[in-house]
Amino acid sequence: QKVQWTQKIAAAGVVAVIRANSVSEAVKISDAVIAGGMRAIELTFTVPQADQAIKEVKTKFAQPDLIIGAGTVFEPTSARLAIMAGAQFIVSPSFNSAVAKLCNFYQIPYIPGCGTVNEMQKALTYGADIIKLFPGSVYGPAMVKSVLAPLPQVNLMPTGGVNLDNMADWFAAGVIAVGSGSQLTRPAATGDYQQVTANAQAYMSKLADLRQ
Ligand code: 3PG
């Protein structure tokens, strides 16, 4: 299951990172990005009652090719809450060994944030499935190329500062997926969910071009 869900994230290509002020807002943003063709949703634990948001999104938008996970999971209590709510992957800005063990126990892909090869090595030792290069924009695509030379087996997913303009550079450097939050969902702040859908469509059409 861990491998299968990791492959689903790679197939989705872009993980929509959803931060919102309420469960209902998180559901609306999820709806908008799914309508735009996105297939991987990360609901962050900065959303109040994030586990509830995971449950609702999973129930409302159940589709076989959709994968719903939890983000900003710093410690095992939130990880377990997320997994019990149905999260299919766990993302964090940093690495936590207790979260890694829990994800291994439940066979859930773990995607910890790492910024150095040392951190990546540790995360891989604990069975991390994908490494979130975070904050992506601080390191840039050149970091991906450098890391993949000695560690060609690493699945890298940069997040933080990823947008439509730099997406191609990340994939050219060899990442398996990217995470995008603010650039994708910003119009939701003014209630313009149609624009969020349009943004999602633009990401997906760019991805399709890159994968041709
Ligand atoms: C986040 O922390 O919200 C994610 O890393 C997304 O970053 P972004 O908003 O720069 O895409």
Describe the SSE topology.
Elements: H1 2-12, E1 14-18, H2 23-35, E2 40-44, H3 50-60, E3 67-71, H4 76-84, E4 90-92, H5 97-106, E5 110-114, H6 117-125, E6 131-133, H7 136-139, H8 141-148, E7 156-158, H9 167-173, E8 178-180, H10 182-185, H11 193-210
Parallel strand pairs: 1-2, 1-8, 2-3, 4-5, 5-6, 6-7
Helix pairs in contact: 2-3, 2-11, 4-5, 8-9
The structure holds 3-phosphoglyceric acid.
3-phosphoglyceric acid is lined by residues 17, 19, 159-162, 179-183.
Describe the structure.
Belongs to the KHG/KDPG aldolase family. The protein has 212 residues and is an alpha/beta fold. 49% of the residues lie in helices and 15% in strands. It has helices at 2-12, 23-35, 50-60, 76-84, 97-106, 117-125, 136-139, 141-148, 167-173, 182-185, 193-210; strands spanning 14-18, 40-44, 67-71, 90-92, 110-114, 131-133, 156-158, 178-180. The strands form 2 sheets. A 4-stranded parallel β-sheet has the order 3-2-1-8, sandwiched between helices. A 4-stranded parallel β-sheet has the order 4-5-6-7. β5 (110-114), α6 (117-125) and β6 form a beta-alpha-beta unit. The mean pLDDT is 97. Bound molecules: 3-phosphoglyceric acid (3PG). 3-phosphoglyceric acid is lined by residues 17, 19, 159-162, 179-183.
